[in-house]
């Protein structure tokens, strides 16, 4: 394998050779192993994104949007997906990366992210199993403009050749937490939960997921990319994602939950809901797992998601199977109930259909959705923005979206961490409050040092 800087120069030369061409191009060049997060650390771009699949098979760092599809509202989603498809047909190996908010009710702090944003990066560092590749996606309009773009991209690559930073996570320092407060506070939370329980008792609602924002003021700047790496090593079987926009604000998370994965017409999705802490040792952990599997309230939380997915996918799938038995997935501090689905979608069903049909599931929204949505928007004092939205990678033959939970928004030294809990018959306000804490414990422990 050629050294890193030599490989980057080869790609830069390939780019210069394209200067007389016209249309969409994608070029790839193998590189020596470089961790995408380590690369993001040193790379020169005002917009950076990161995506890693839960399987661990593929991690991508993307910079310098070649095409940036920012959505003002839900109504432009169909058009955006259609446009992305046209581009992907021209460069089939490429992917758009990005995400979308929980709903279109968002406060100003989320403006830079839009309702949704899907980016085709000009440069992508892809780590796929044992291989590392640098890819370049470029639209060449022809003539002088093609020449200018090719030279600009080549020069950029050559500049980066010397900028690679070798990541030293042992050097990670927790920034420390100077101040924290919760929105809603515990008293407002109790009120919200009571309101949901009243609606549940009145039989207009089965479940609503209420959430909380913990606003932290950090003592020192957060070394974001190192932090993400540390967080992922605590929960290695999770998705990880980040989008840093031009202002420097960054939305990121480490989520265990899949919205869906599609490969050609094969589909995988899941009902992930119901939560318990981990035990202090193996036998206590086993006891907690047993309790979780046999707990009516947690089973009900999960069953509502399961039923919803089965109902809404019936029309989109030719075949759909789910696990017969619920199982448990284990994270660093908590464990969840999970039911997996496998299916075959009907010909002509698109990622747009899947996304708009599945999102938001009752794992983050509620059931029925219309009632839950109304309660969530009237009771939650904060704006969820992209928290509990979706984040993922959109391809021609392979698309995967995570549910953007276990996530946060970093703005300078202000960091908001979000978590929610499914409120159903049998929920107790203070136990659910504790569940909110449990869901952010892994991230908090890395920040507090
Ligand atoms: C809403 C969140 O998580 C969801 C709610 C769960 C629950 O209430 O048991 C479990 C997993 C997720 O479906 C979150 O982490 O913010
Ligand atoms: Mg719960």
From TrEMBL:
Which Pfam families does this entry report, sorted A to Z?
Answer: Chorismate_bind
Q: Which UniProt keywords apply?
A: Isomerase, Magnesium, Menaquinone biosynthesis, Metal-binding
* Pathway note: Quinol/quinone metabolism; menaquinone biosynthesis; Quinol/quinone metabolism; 1,4-dihydroxy-2-naphthoate biosynthesis; 1,4-dihydroxy-2-naphthoate from chorismate: step 1/7
Residues in Chorismate-utilising enzyme C-terminal domain copies: 186-439
Task: Name the positions where Mg(2+) binds.
Answer: 301, 435
Q: Which InterPro entries match?
A: ADC_synthase, Chorismate_C, IsoChor_synthase, MenF
What function does this protein fulfil?
Answer: Catalyzes the conversion of chorismate to isochorismate.
Q: Which family does it belong to?
A: Belongs to the isochorismate synthase family.
Checking NCBIfam families in the record gives: isochor_syn
- The protein here is known as Isochorismate synthase MenF
Species name for this entry?
A: Kistimonas scapharcae
